[in-house]
Amino acid sequence: MIIDLRKFFEATDPSRTLVINNTQDKKYYIDFSSVRGGDIISKLKQKITYFKPDDPTCTLFTGHIGCGKSTELRRLQLELEADGFCVIYFESSEDLEMTDVDIADVLLAIARRVSQSLEKLNLAEPSRLKELLLGAIKVLNADVTGVKLKVPNVGDFGVSSEKEKFTLAFGIGEITTKAKSDATLRERLNQYLGPQKIKLLDAINKELLEPAIAKLKQQGKKGLVVIVDNLDRIDNRPKAWGRPQQEYLFVDQGEYLTKLNCHVVYTMPLSLKFSNDYGTLTQRFLEDPRVLPMVPVQWSDGSVHEEGMMLMQQMVLARAYPDLRSDQRLSNITFIFDRKATLEYLCRMSGGHVRDLLRLLNTWIMEEMSLPLTRDTLDTVIRARRNEMVLPISDDEWGLLRRVKETKKVSDDQGYQKLIRSRFVFEYRDRGESWFEVNPILAQARELQ
C-alpha cells in the first residue's frame, strides 16, 4: 500500500491531543481501558451523572504527563455533553504561569472560563466579584491600565467595547493577562486576593456558578461540569517560604479547590502520590485521586504483556491506516516497518508511554525520510534520546534507579518524586496493585548494567 509519509508524520505529532468528536481523531483513538485496570473515565462519569448529579463533586485525575489524560478528559467531556451536562474544558497552562501558581489564580481562571463560555445566559452583574476585581486593579495601579483599557482610570476597567457593558471574563482577562507575564504584578495580585480567597470563592459560587446552573437547568441541562486540564504540569519549585508549589496548591490550599458549587475535575501531578503529605491530600479531597496508569507492554517479571503490546501496535498502525480494520492493519505492517519485530521493539522501548512512543516514531520518520522504517535508524534515535536523558542524573539518583530495577518499588522519598516527575520511572497496575519499572530507554544505560 502507498503511505503518504508526510501525513503519517503529521498523524504522529506527540504534542497533539486527540479530540474524540473530531472524525479523523476518532479513527486514531485506541481504547486502552482493558489493560489499564478498567474504564476510569466511565467511573468518573457515573459519579457525576448517576451518584451525584445535583450535588457538587470534585475529582483529582492523575497519571504520567503524556500518558493520555487529556485525550481521556476530552472523551469525558463528549460523553457528559451527550448525557445533558454543560461542560467547560480548558487547559490551565493557557491562563496560568505554571512556575508560580496561587489558589486565587486558579479560582480566577475558572471564573473567567465559566463566564466566557456562558456569556449568552445574561447573568446579573456580579457586584461582589466586580468589587474584588476593582480592588485588584487599584492594587496593581497603572501597571495594568493601558493594556486594553480606553483611559487610564479605574472607571473603565472590565468594560467591553460592546454597549459599554461590564463583562466578568473581560475584567479578569485584563488582570491575568498582564500578571501572567510579570512576577511582581503576580505577587501584588496574590497579596491582595490571597487573604480574601474565602470572599472570592463565595462570590464565584453565589454570583456566577449557582445562577448559571439555575439557568442551564431551565434550558434542560442537567448541570455544569468544569474540567481543569494541565494543572498536573505546575512546576514544583519552592515558594518564597520554602514550601514546594505542588504541595502548597493541592495540600495546603486543596480545601478551596473542593468548594466550588459545581462538578470540577482537576489534573494533579502524579508525584504527589509519593509525597509525605499524600494522606493529608486525600483528607482534603475526601477520596483518592483517579489514576490513569501506563499501558503495560510487559509484566513485572519481564515477560511480554500480549494485550498491551497489541494495543500499542494498533495505536501506531492506526496513524498510518486510519480507515482499515485492526486485522487489516496488522497484515500491512511491512509497508511501514522493515519487519514486525521492529514495531514490537518500538512499543517495548516506549514502556507503554503514549507520548514517548509518538515522540520516538515522529523523530524516526524525520531521520529516515522513507518507508519502510528500519531498526538501525530506530537504534540511532533511541541512543540519542538516552544520551539526553542521562545528562542530568546524579549519582544518588542512579542508586535509586538501580533500586527500582531490582525491587519494582518506590517510597515517599523526595528523590523518587523527581524520578517519576522526570519520567525516569514508570508506574503500572496489575489487578489493582502498583509496580514500578525504570524507563526502558534509560534501563539500557551502562550505569544500570
Write a compact overview of the structure shown.
This protein has 20 helices and seven strands. It is α/β, with parallel strands linked by helices.
Structure description:
The chain has 449 residues and is α/β, with parallel strands linked by helices. It is 49% helix and 8% strand. It contains 20 helices and seven strands. It has helices at 5-11, 23-28, 40-51, 69-82, 103-117, 127-140, 168-180, 183-193, 197-218, 245-252, 254-257, 278-285, 306-320, 326-330, 340-350, 354-368, 375-390, 395-407, 414-421, 440-443, and strands spanning 58-62, 86-91, 224-229, 263-268, 290-291, 425-430, 433-438. Strands 2-3-4-1-5 form a five-stranded parallel beta sheet, sandwiched between helices. It has a two-stranded antiparallel sheet with strand order 6-7. Helix 15 packs across helix 16 and helix 16 packs across helix 17.
Note the run of SSEs as H and E.
Answer: HHHEHEHHHHHEHHEHEHHHHHHHEEH
Strand order of the largest sheet: 2-3-4-1-5
Q: Radius of gyration over alpha carbons? A: 24 Å
Please give the number of β-strands: 7
Strand content: 5-15%
Shape: globular
| Helical content class | 40-55%
Structural class: alpha/beta
Q: Could you give a short account of the major beta sheet? A: 5 strands, parallel
Distance between the termini: 42 Å
Low-confidence stretches: 145-157
Q: Which whole number gives the mean pLDDT? A: 90
Continuous helix count: 20
